[in-house]
């Protein structure tokens, strides 16, 4: 809180009967200025202190509007503007101690402005100036969207005032601002900022700053390496903060979902406040031993080709949103399927065989010419998952 004060005093000095001591009788005019920052829908106190005395008169005004009045030892609210009815009050038990501060409840953006506190007593008078500023910063969100073959990130804040500063980074390097959309509404602002994802191996970060409230929120998106599995296998879907500075230290939620063009479906979610995990997909499971390590990865069992697609992990708190995307490919593990997938590779590269790893760490040859044969130790074996991953993930 910033505060500036310009104070002028005029003292009448009367020598005391007690030697070198002096007593002061106030005939003074004091003017000071303070800046008070409040939050929308919350309460705030506008300060006003004075030298206590008899016959206290207090007036709080905003421009020509009476906010609150007190004299003759009681409230005098006949002239009070309707905007302040049942929202303002004094600390009556503190008035005789020199406290004329005003309690202001349920702030609105229209309450911003300059408030004058006038206090007069039998000892003198003061006039204080209080500048009230009101801000709001409802928790922003980062959303990941797919539309046909394009992918987008949207940083959105539903309610913010004053207008925030929004910045984007790709791989920790600043980029020009995304396309910003201000939703038509009365104050506070509703703002969306959108960027198109151009590199699947890049990380994107969005920062939204409210300079008045000195709050900054961060959204981060990361694409993990693709996963390739065979029918009936299990897969671990990664979900953990990539940066130690984002380790959850407060209430947060974790949501797992599957993303398709234009839609997403929630598979499971975790609430830190209750330590409760709700799973909507019965084939999903979670290693409870990893919870205290801030690892929220899930295992999806008994895969089928229909499980292929993008999986999104969302870790969100009031300070950040962390999005992690993984692409899963599931294929049927037969030689015929592998031949179909490898034929374009053979034609493009002119290959007749690929060397891959066999079970047990031994080398084997996957012959493409005239069909698919998997040869380990000069023995024809079915295609194992390691070889199939080489085939479908390249």
From TrEMBL:
Pfam families: C1-set (PF07654), V-set (PF07686). InterPro entries: Ig-like_dom, Ig-like_dom_sf, Ig-like_fold, Ig_C1-set, Ig_sub, Ig_sub2, Ig_V-set, T-cell_Activation_Regulation. It comes from the Eukaryota. Residues 1-20 form the signal peptide. Residues 15-127, 153-218, 232-324 form the Ig-like domain. It is a single-pass type I membrane protein. Its main location: membrane. GO terms for biological process: cell surface receptor signaling pathway; cellular response to lipopolysaccharide; immune response; negative regulation of T cell proliferation; positive regulation of T cell proliferation; T cell costimulation. SMART domains: IG, IGc2, IGv. PANTHER family: BUTYROPHILIN SUBFAMILY 2 MEMBER A2-LIKE-RELATED, T-LYMPHOCYTE ACTIVATION ANTIGEN. This is HERV-H LTR-associating protein 2. It comes from Camelus bactrianus. The gene is HHLA2.
């Amino acid at each position: 809180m910033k505060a500036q004060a310009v104070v002028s005093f005029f003292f009448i000095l009367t020598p005391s009967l007690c030697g070198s001591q002096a007593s002061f009788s106030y005939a003074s005019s004091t003017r000071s200025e303070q800046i008070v920052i409040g939050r929308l829908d919350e309460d705030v106190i506008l300060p006003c202190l004075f030298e206590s005395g008899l016959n206290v008169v207090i007036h709080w005004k905003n421009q020509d509007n009476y906010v609150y009045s007190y004299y003759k030892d009681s409230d005098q609210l006949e002239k009070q503007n309707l905007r302040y009815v049942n929202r303002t009050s004094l600390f009556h038990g503190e008035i005789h101690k020199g406290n004329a501060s005003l309690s202001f409840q349920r702030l609105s953006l229209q309450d911003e402005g300059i408030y004058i506190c006038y206090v007069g007593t039998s000892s003198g008078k003061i006039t204080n100036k209080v500048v009230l500023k009101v801000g709001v910063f409802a928790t922003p969100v980062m959303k990941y969207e797919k539309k046909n073959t394009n992918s987008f990130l949207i940083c959105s804040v539903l309610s913010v005032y004053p207008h925030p500063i929004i910045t984007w980074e790709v791989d920790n390097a600043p980029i020009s601002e995304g396309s910003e959309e201000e939703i038509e509404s009365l104050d506070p602002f509703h703002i969306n900022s959108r960027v198109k994802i151009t590199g699947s191996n890049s990380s994107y970060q969005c920062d939204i700053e409210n300079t008045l409230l000195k709050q900054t929120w961060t959204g981060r998106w990361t694409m993990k390496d693709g996963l390739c599995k065979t029918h009936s296998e299990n897969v671990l879907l990664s979900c953990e903060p990539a940066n130690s500075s984002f380790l959850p230290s407060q209430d947060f939620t974790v949501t797992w979902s599957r993303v398709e063009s234009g839609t997403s479906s929630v598979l499971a979610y975790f609430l830190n406040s209750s330590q409760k995990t709700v799973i909507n997909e019965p084939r999903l499971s979670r290693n409870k031993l990893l919870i205290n390590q801030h690892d929220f990865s899930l295992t999806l069992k008994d895969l089928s080709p229909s499980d292929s697609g993008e999986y999104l992990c969302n870790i969100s708190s009031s300070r950040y949103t962390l999005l992690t995307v993984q692409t899963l490919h599931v294929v049927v593990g037969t030689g015929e399927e592998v031949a179909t997938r490898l034929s374009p590779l053979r034609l493009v590269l002119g290959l007749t065989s690929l060397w891959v790893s066999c079970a047990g760490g031994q080398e084997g040859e996957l012959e493409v010419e005239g069909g698919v044969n998997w040869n380990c130790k000069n023995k024809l074996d079915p295609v194992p998952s390691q070889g199939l991953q080489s085939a479908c993930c390249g």
